Amino acid sequence: MSTIIYPSPIFGPVHSRRLGISLGINLLPADGKICTFDCIYCECGYNAQRHTSSPHPPRALVAEKLEEKLKEMKANSYAPDVLTFAGNGEPTSHPHFYEIIQDTISLRNIYCPTAKISVLSNSTFIHRPKVHEALRMVDNNILKLDTINTEWIKKVDRPTAPSYNVKKIIENMKAFKGKLIIQTMFLKGYNDQGENITNTSETFVKPWLEAVEAIAPKEVMIYTIERETPASHLRKASHEELDAICERVKSLGIACQASY
Fold first, then answer.
1. What is the DSSP letter of 164?
2. Is there a domain that residue 3 lies in?
3. Which pTM was predicted?
4. pLDDT, tens digit (0-9, with 9 covering 90-100), for 176-206
5. What range does the domain containing 143 cover?
6. Which parts of the sequence belong to the Radical SAM core domain (predicted)?
7. N or C: which end of the chain has fewer CB within 10 A?
8. CA-based Rg of the chain, rounded to a whole angstrom?
9. Is 206 part of any domain?
10. What is the pLDDT of residues 231-244, one digit of tens each?
11. Domain count, the chain
């Protein structure tokens, strides 16, 4: 198994399948992972294997390092398409997430005004007023909803809080009133316990589509595994499967893109 831990607080730029030239902003420590999910497909590995007691990087350091990198990129006439909050866990867990979003918007406006700001979140903190407000300020509020099947979520996404409730997540997504992008992982295979976790069948897709229609996001991004995963018996969903699901989303009048 070869999983990834990202530098902090800035990494890249990298080429994103979905977002273009992306400069990463990692609000988690550089020596481990802090996440409210423990996904069996996470490219950063399992939480227990990446345990850290290091703190989140301070707000001032994030702004300082981001400005340094943006100055460097501008001097080299190399502008990012997007500034992406991602990395070693859940970015909205940072205690100063709201303020960091404000700082990032200000720096973006100075150094790369055409760049979008994206946040990749697993949706677990979107009920918090400050997190909700911050996510409404960014261009791409990208929220995870892999399925509405509770048993699958326990086996694959593996929320760390017993109180996790996907129905509440869906209601909190509706509160964005369309200012969000739903991101969904489709995959095939088995978890470490030998349980089938394929979620490309009608049993999973139909209720997920109903939830997507009820949430009414501005866009849906569907994707499949690309890098090595901590669970060793996972397989990609096929191009044909992703394309078929994508067309069903579009038939609801919602934009959709698939990444293979």
1. -
2. no
3. 0.96
4. 999 999 999 999 999 999 999 999 999 999 9
5. 10-258
6. 33-193
7. N
8. 18
9. yes
10. 999 999 999 999 99
11. 1
